């Protein structure tokens, strides 16, 4: 994600149950202008 210019924006705590345990999910974001500027 970092290579794509995205940043770790927030965590959804205990979002999904996997293997009998609750897991957090990390949400990565990028602004359109940041993405566009990378493509130029």
From TrEMBL:
Q: Which Gene3D superfamilies match?
A: 3.40.630.30
This protein's name: Uncharacterized protein
Query: Source organism lineage?
Result: Bacteria, Bacillati, Actinomycetota, Actinomycetes, Kitasatosporales
